[in-house]
Amino acid sequence: MRVGAIELRLLEHCARVGPTTVREVADSFGKEHGIRLTTVQQMMERLRKKTLLQRQKVNGIWVYRGVESRESVLKGVVKDFIDRTLGGSIEPFMLYLADPSNESSDRLDEVRRIVERLSSEVEDGDGG
């Protein structure tokens, strides 16, 4: 699933505010990001077609709401990045994290913690 950075921010906004209209999103998110009403509307419709937003008519006005959790959307974005950009391999990403010149020691520590957690979940039979 291909989701751009601004689309991801828009999804996060919709998740934060709950059911909302294009006008409400344009008045808050749109103004904050310098995006006009028509562009917000196009983005929300694009996200609806990607099945990341749903809409329902309430008193003659379309009300949108998020379908997936932020975590689920991010997993899809990361999977797409790995598949399309890294050819399905996480090795380049891991090498980047392990490179001390990237000042990513905190990130590498986080990866270690995640790997340890996932390993213990698999050992406990909770890993899927």
Task: Write up what this structure looks like.
- The chain is mainly alpha-helical and 128 residues long.
- It folds into two domains: 5-66, Arc Repressor Mutant, subunit A (Orthogonal Bundle), CATH 1.10.10.10; 70-123.
- Helices cover 63% and strands 9% of the residues.
- It contains six helices and two strands.
- Strands 1-2 form a two-stranded antiparallel sheet.
- A hairpin with a 2-residue loop joins β1 (53-58) and β2 (61-66).
- The longest helix is centred in the C-terminal third of the chain and has 19 residues, at 105-123.
- It starts with a helix and ends in a 5-residue tail after the last helix.
- The model has no long low-confidence stretch (mean pLDDT 87).
Offer a few descriptive terms.
about 130 residues, mainly alpha, 2 domains, two-stranded antiparallel ribbon, about 10% strand
**Order of helical and strand elements:** HHHEEHHH
CATH superfamily of the largest domain: Winged helix-like DNA-binding domain superfamily/Winged helix DNA-binding domain
The percent of residues in helical segments reads: 55-70%
Secondary-structure content class: mainly alpha
Distance from first to last alpha carbon: 22 Å
What does the largest sheet look like? 2 strands, antiparallel
The fold-level CATH name of the largest domain is Arc Repressor Mutant, subunit A
CATH architecture annotation of the largest domain: Orthogonal Bundle
CATH class of the largest domain: Mainly Alpha
Strand order of the largest sheet: 1-2
Quaternary structure of the protein: single chain
* Overall 3D form: elongated
